[in-house]
């Protein structure tokens, strides 16, 4: 118990910053990157899905390449390449670079989730909508997508939770996320157990909290049916 107290209240730098505040700063970065990447990744995912399902090769080919490359390489490599090579000449802070990298990564996976959800909707729904005079765009936005969202919600929730845990690699570019905060405390206090278990406990609480909220939301959707 004393080790955990020392982790939270012992100054760990010349500026007098205590471990607890550093962990809170790291947690704020983790949540910011996770929520922002989920939002922008969803936009990229929808765009990539529409491009892949457009039937036009000049739209489908770039989307296939994007999804294939991103899903075929580790996120930590994507993050490092983006920050140290692609954005090296630009004045982009580490948090913004992390948001961009994780948005691009998440977008590829969300694209496949959305595509699977759309294909799971009975084709007769689209045919019926078109027979009633709806355009292809109207059919997609008012008939197909609302049904697809219900089907893919669990997978989207899982992607959010996976993304939350994947942000632990932000430290590779020097960003101070939750995991990096624990590493800094560990290196300065020479205490391994307390900071690492504290970070693990926070990740666990966040994961279970978001899983619980997602489950409640799914139940509400089923009741509305």
UniProtKB/TrEMBL annotation:
CDD domains (alphabetical): TM_PBP2 (cd06261)
Domain ABC transmembrane type-1 intervals: 27-214
GO terms of molecular function: transmembrane transporter activity
Single Gene Ontology BP annotation: amino acid transport
Subcellular location: Cell inner membrane; Cell membrane
GO cellular component: ATP-binding cassette (ABC) transporter complex
Pfam families reported in the protein's UniProt record: BPD_transp_1
Key words of the record: Amino-acid transport, Cell membrane, Membrane, Transmembrane, Transmembrane helix, Transport
Membrane topology: Multi-pass membrane protein
Bilayer-crossing regions: 31-51, 63-86, 193-214
PROSITE patterns in alphabetical order: ABC_TM1 (PS50928)
Family designation: Belongs to the binding-protein-dependent transport system permease family. HisMQ subfamily.
Physiological role: Part of the binding-protein-dependent transport system for glutamine; probably responsible for the translocation of the substrate across the membrane.
Protein name from the UniProt record: Putative glutamine transport system permease protein GlnP
